[in-house]
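Following up on my earlier thread - several people asked me to post the actual chain instead of describing it. Fair enough. Here it is, all 328 residues.
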Amino acid sequence: MLHRTLSARIERWPVRGAFTISRGAKRDVEVVIAELAEGGLVGRGEATAIYYHGESASGILAVLEGVREQVEAGLDSIALQTLLPRGAARNALDCALWDLEAKRSGIPVWRLAGLSAPQPLETAFTISLGEPARMEADARAVANLPLLKLKLAGEGDIARVAAVRKGAPAARLIVDANEAWTGRDVAAEAGALVPFGVELIEQPVKAGQDHLLDNVVSPIPLCADESCQDRADLERCVGRYAAINIKLDKAGGLTEALALAAEAPAAGLEIMVGCMLATSLGIAPAALVASQARWIDLDGALLLAEDRKHAMTATKGLLAAAAPELWG
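Reply from S.P.:
Thanks for posting it. Predicted structure:
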């Protein structure tokens, strides 16, 4: 067996302007890069800490250091699923293992995973939370894009959506409440958004309080984000949500994300694929899962002030497939 080494580091990337949701604003993002070197080849994976789980970039590094011996001894993606719990640390390693295997075999990841060849994907572009006038201006600046995603906060959301619709009259709209509708009449809030053509509402209530959606009849489909991390959460979502948002950092990597995408439709749930703020290295594996999704929100790298070499590009809302020099 060839000698394998694991290295990991934190990188900080500036956000273009600020990325604002109901929990606060971010002006930069720390990502963790895991690299597996073996026989002159290097597999890479990138992860962003799930802050609402208490994760941090330094914590991810500590987790990776804690499994160094097993990883360098030849751990594969299947064994990794039981070695580490879901979360960003496992995502970084899992994606690095897929990338390494693709380089070692000469077979691209999409083919190893039994997927069709990647095609350009229509991705949402996020309008950060703000006052209606600001959100209208932000929407007007990207009104040529086909799909916009609005961050909401509860109070004043109808005015925000109305402003964005005014700024981008032809765009499709999805909204993300980020748990801010907890304690509100979800059906009534959703009903008020119908005239603006909103087609999906993400995470209206706090994760763990999904029972608040029991018997709620929403005129717009509801999507679980924080409430659905991996397959273990599917049962709780059935009957309460129409869709789930799959993110590799939540699920713990491409392996679990693919399994989740395969099982969700059988449970009657449609698929959205999203991301944290990340560079194109973190977006590339998620884009493979997105080939199976109805809604795609992979603009994490597009929201950065700069991206890495061989970055994925987006033209008129179509996200190009990743180059093998980047990942996979």
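The radius of gyration is 19 Å. That should answer part of your original question.
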